[in-house]
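Re: your question about TIGR01777 family protein

S., sorry for the slow reply, the queue was backed up all week. Below is exactly what I fed in.
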Amino acid sequence: MAVFESTEHIGHPADRVFQWHRRPGALTRLSPEWAQSVLEESYPPLAPGARARLRTSVPGTAGTVRVPFVAEHDDGPTPRSFVDRMVKGPLKSWTHTHVFDGEQSCVVRDRVEYEVLPGRLGGDRNALGKYAGRFTDRAVQSMLTKTFADRTAQLRADLDFHAALAERSDRRLNILIGGASGLVGSQVAALLSTGGHSVRRLVRGEPQRADEVRWDPARGQLEASAVAWADVVVHLGGASIATRFTPKNKQKILSSRVDSTDLIVRTCAALPSDERPEAFVCASAVGAYGADCGDRVLTEEEPYGEGFLAEVCREWEARAAAVENLGMRRVSVRTGLVLTSLGGLLRVQLPLYLAGMGGPVGGGRQWQSWISLDDLVRIYATVVVDGAVTGPVNAVAPHPVRQSQFAAELARTLHRPAVVPVPRVAPAVLLGQEGAKELALANQRVAPTVLEAAGFSFRHPDLRDALTWTLPPRGPADPESARA
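Result:
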């Protein structure tokens, strides 16, 4: 039986830290992007017998390969403690005891007892068996050291962020979120709920939890009472744009956004004025400025550009802005390239870079305006709480980079070369000429002017820091890692 122990001083009162862990979203916020992805948190949180479903990264794969991990909660040895036990996963056993000591300054004590599995489990070719040999004691200890360092940093940062946000407004809000099961939406819901706000999620299937509300944008179905309950409605839904821009796909991309937004606006309009939400926060994208903007700096004052995605954003934002006629505040969050190993463009690129085949795309001169996933969800939380922020908001880091610089920095973080240029024709093979121009080859130098004026503090303002945060530390290349 191997043991890993961690003791960290958090700098916030122990009861506050323990209660933070007992709220929905705590596991999602504490899971390092490179180490594990949360499929389903336990509900109610930390209830004895409740289970959480995750996928944990296989050592040596930079998060590109993940295997199932299911943990069951139990009461801990003290009133402020709890235990997680693995019931399915890549190890023989796993017991994690969390203890919260102290009073005004919390000390978090973590103890993990585990046993590794031998080789390939007798030739088992499923995901767990194939990668069991990667979870050696040395690999597990290394992952745990980095994981708990990142967990502590995230916990401190989130607690500090909640305290700073309370200075803008200390109200506890009711927040209804569409798209809460997505990559960004799940993190937004988690950050807001761990901050003490009441969050309900719009789901298209039958609700499975007390905090879920069914809706069907295609059929125009949304409970008016759920919208009346909310102080703020947040909408992040929409079909993926990472596809060929065929007429059918274009229609799906547009209608998935405007139809659902229209439904929310109509539902708000049907309510008595004193029952309407105070604000509507809706997603958008920097595609609003067009695909090829040269070197000029794009602020929120810039007019809409040309191209399919610009037209989608124009229409989407216009539908959302209709709530302003109802006396509601409206914010359209124009998101740049989201950097996270959990999904999106970065996750797609990782296997290529791990194999030493990464490099500049289409010459590499185009500007990429990016944002870390952590900063993006903080932006959403800020505009939800801060009633002074209105209209379009550029959700990008303050330092955009040329694509060639992005390629070089990603390769450096992964300890790989970036010497294989990708010709402009390559993205067109996958996305078509129009899709390649507006996605892979888009040239947008965007500035977060509104956020900076509002005093928003970026946690990851520089590309190197953002990539280091979302990717695990790696040593020199090894053949097996490159093949994984």
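The chain has 15 helices and 21 strands. The domain at 2-160 is CATH 3.30.530.20 (Alpha-D-Glucose-1,6-Bisphosphate; Chain A, domain 4).

Happy to talk it through on Thursday.
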